[in-house]
TrEMBL record:
It comes from the Bacteria. One of its GO terms (biological process) is methylation. This is tRNA (guanine-N(1)-)-methyltransferase. The keyword Membrane does not apply. It comes from Rhizobium calliandrae.
Length: 226
């Protein structure tokens, strides 16, 4: 079984982007995951292929029309129970736990918003799960969708050369990752911490845990509170 991602977007040329290279690209070539795009504009019915209109109640910008977007979603999700996600700054913050839940499934359908957003009626009517990648605004949902897929694809079975490499990273155990070092032993007068070259695996594990807790306390105390 391979992981399948379908992207609803006004800019299908933005995909697969960087996911077509490196480990993700090789995994795609091997058939471990796939990606297809749906052009939302193809589901407009007027001669101008209009996909947006002015916001009800007034205000700046434009809003994606519910009828057009709903037809695109229905086309992409016919007889399909994959989660339907909407990349949105007002969505629930993306976590590594949610990434793993999605990676354990058959795939995702991702709607990439544009303009001022998506008509609330299609969000409710098509059961879209709003997902945020951070407290900032992008020009559209496409970069966010690429980030979400990057996080998912890298932990699919067999994508990384060593699956263990994904188990000791930031957020996997509730902490930020400990500092990393490699040769040369001395660089610009700074040495690799002696414990890391001691061969004492118990001492190394203890040091790594202590450093992870220290960094987390300094930079992300909210993680410790959780």
């Amino acid at each position: 079984m391979s992981f399948s991602a379908t992207i609803l977007t006004l800019y299908p040329e933005m995909f697969p982007g960087h996911l077509g290279t490196s480990l993700a690209g090789k995994a795609m070539e091997r058939g471990q995951w796939s990606l297809d795009t749906v052009q939302i504009r193809d589901f407009a019915t007027d001669k101008h292929r209009t996909v947006d209109d002015t916001p009800a109640g007034g205000g700046a910008g434009m809003v994606l029309k519910p009828d057009v977007l709903a037809r695109a979603i229905d086309h992409a999700s016919k007889n399909d129970d994959r989660p339907r996600l909407l990349m949105s700054p007002r969505g629930k913050p993306l976590t590594q736990r949610r990434v793993r839940e999605l990676a354990d499934g058959d795939g995702v359908i991702i709607v990439c918003g544009r303009f001022e957003g998506v008509d609330q009626r299609v969000i409710d009517g098509r059961d879209l799960e709003e997902v945020s990648i951070g407290d900032y605004i992008l020009s559209g949902g496409e970069p966010a969708a690429l980030i979400l897929l990057d996080a998912i694809v890298r932990i699919l079975p067999g994508v990384m050369g060593n699956d263990l490499s994904g188990q000791n990273e930031s957020f996997e155990g509730g902490l930020l990752e400990h500092p990393q070092y490699t040769r040369p032993q001395v660089w610009e007068g700074h040495e690799i911490p002696a414990v890391l070259t001691s061969g004492n695996h118990g001492a190394i594990a203890k040091w790594q845990r202590q450093e992870a807790e220290k960094l987390t306390k300094e930079r992300r105390p909210d993680l410790l509170e959780k």
